[in-house]
Every structure is written in C-alpha cells, then in structure tokens.
Amino acid sequence: MKLEELQLFLEQHEKCLILYARQWCNTPEDVVQEALMELVRKQLDPMQNTAWVYIVVRNKAVSVARRSTKQKPMAGQDCEPWFESNTGDAIDAHAAQLHLQELDEPIREVMVLKLWGGLSFEEIAPLAQCSKSEAHRRYQQGLELLRKKMGLL
C-alpha cells in the first residue's frame, strides 16, 4: 500500500469513520486508528476495501462500548459535537446531532453511511446487515424523520 493512497482515503473518509464509530463509543478516533492500523498490517488497498474498513470500525466501536461499564453509547449532551457549527449553515448543527441521535440505530447507521460516508446502498447493505432495498428504505425513512423533526417539511 502506498502512503499516498492511505492519505487520499483518510481525506475522503476519516471524518465519516469517526462519526460512524461515535454511534457506539466515546473514543471514535482511537477506534478508527486501530482499524486503519489493521488495514495497513493486512496490506489492503483502502480504496478497494472501504466497506471492510467500516465493518472493522463498527466491530471495534461496539467492542469498546461493551468493555466499558462506565461508557454509555450515544451520550447526548456529554459527548463531543458530531458536526462543526457554521453561522452560514441553513441547519443548526447541534439540533441536527440531537435529531440524528434520536433515530433508531439501524436507520441512523444507514443515514451516516450514505450521507457522510458516500457509500452506495450495495455497500451499506452488508454493513447494516440488511438487503440493498432495506438499506434504501431505512435511508428514505431517516430523511423523512429528520425533515419532520427539523421542521423542513
């Protein structure tokens, strides 16, 4: 694996991988770093194994959450903000985070993978342990729920 390939992969996916891991644990940066180290150890091409990296991140994040008796997944106000606020944004980042956290985990997972990860429904299906059509249905349902919660309908 070339260093340039890994850098390009990180530029495209690091923030989403962290957001994805944050759904289950409060140390998402560590989880992503461990997954990337595993990718490097296995000498896999990151661009050809994007879905694999997401699976490893998910599994590691869930494991971290299970090991920690003090940690509560999706810790609400106590956790680091998921999005950076910008005064020019049409949507309030804090409100978006709260509404996203309120979604059921299967729907939230698909939303994060599609919107921030840029993954196709074909790539999302094995990650979310559902069919491609079910992933699409969850995405549509999530969009509708977020629009309602944010008063955008």
Provide an overview of this structure.
The protein has helices at 3-22, 28-41, 50-67, 93-102, 105-116, 121-128, 132-149. The model is unreliable at 71-77 (pLDDT under 50). It contains seven helices and no strands. Helices cover 65% and strands 0% of the residues. It has two domains: 1-71, no CATH class; 90-153, Arc Repressor Mutant, subunit A (Orthogonal Bundle). With 153 residues, the protein is mainly α.
How do the strands and helices of this protein lay out in sequence?
Layout: H1 3-22, H2 28-41, H3 50-67, H4 93-102, H5 105-116, H6 121-128, H7 132-149
Radius of gyration: 16 Å
Total number of beta strands: 0
Proportion of strand residues: under 5%
Overall pLDDT:
84
Distance between the termini: 46 Å
